[in-house]
Specification:
234 residues; alpha+beta; Phosphorylase Kinase, domain 1; Transferase(Phosphotransferase), domain 1; five-stranded antiparallel beta sheet; two-stranded antiparallel ribbon
């Protein structure tokens, strides 16, 4: 059996990374944030998510695609965030700010004490965070329904309330970016999360609540969206 070196395995990702991103990956590796990227977890249009190893610990490395990202859509979201009002309409600047924003939002989540990955570091278009799960990544809610839907929903509501008190709204909540780990809701994908004082924050909160109440209604949990919003913002 032929054992490939890390550099040889890394070559299989050619076409996924540009040269600039490759240099940043190797820099983060050399600084000890992870030992190696071992496998892809999710390959998307705008970002690619990989599992990396640091010793025996598994981490998540999320890499935004500089060339393929819909940076105009990103700009339309991020320009409303008062933290990024200085941004110009430039591709790399927007994508790097988008990555930084997700890292900062995860820091908000960590401070709020909710179920979410712990952010470890970021560099330009690369974000490294904790992996939720034991030996394998925890499944998304869409693919793994909770054993006790009402209890799961109530816990999710508690997470959103804590996050709101910390001044943040997820902004892109659905069954695709809630993990079901040990029948507890873990929130992921915080790139679109925004401050409560952002002009469109109320609209984003309403959309979040609509998405989750519609999903849980299919599981027999019927909650009034307006009442849910009151509970979150109370």
């Amino acid at each position: 059996m032929v054992t490939l070196t890390y550099q040889e395995r890394f070559k299989t990702f050619k076409g996924v990374f540009d040269e600039h991103t490759e240099r940043n990956i190797f820099e983060l590796q050399s600084r000890g944030f992870f030992d190696e990227i071992v496998s892809p977890l999710k390959i998307g249009k705008e970002s690619n998510v990989f599992i990396a190893l640091k010793g025996k610990l598994k981490l998540i490395v999320k890499i935004y695609r500089v060339q393929n990202c819909d940076f105009k859509r990103m700009y339309n979201y991020i320009r409303k965030d008062p933290r990024y009002s200085f941004l110009k309409h430039r591709r790399r600047q927007i994508i790097y700010a988008w990555t930084q924003r997700e890292f900062r939002n995860l820091k908000y989540a960590e401070k709020a004490g909710i179920y979410a990955p712990k952010p470890l570091t970021f560099k330009e278009n690369i974000l490294i965070e904790e992996m939720i799960g034991d030996q394998e990544p925890a499944p998304v809610l869409k693919d793994n329904h909770p054993q006790h839907p009402q209890k799961f929903f109530d816990s999710l509501l508690s997470q959103l309330k804590k996050l709101y008190r910390e001044g943040l709204i997820h902004g892109d909540l659905s069954s695709f970016n809630i993990l079901n780990h040990e029948d507890k809701p873990y929130l992921i994908d915080f790139s679109q999360a925004t401050l409560v004082q952002t002009p469109n924050s109320e609209e984003l909160l309403q959309r979040d609540v609509k998405n989750i109440t519609n999903f849980f209604a299919k599981l027999g949990v019927n909650e009034d969206p307006a009442a849910v919003i009151k509970k979150i913002t109370a």
